[in-house]
Amino acid sequence: MKRCLFAFAFLVVFFTNACGLYLGGTEAGRSFLGLGEDKKQDPAALASLLQVVSGGALLVFSPSPLDLIPDVPGNYTASLASPAPASWSSDEVNLSFDIDYSSCPSETSASPTVSFAPPSYSGQTLDITTHSNGNCVLIFTVNQGTSVQSGISAGTFGGVLPVISAK
Question: Domain of life here (predicted)?
Answer without folding.
Answer: Bacteria
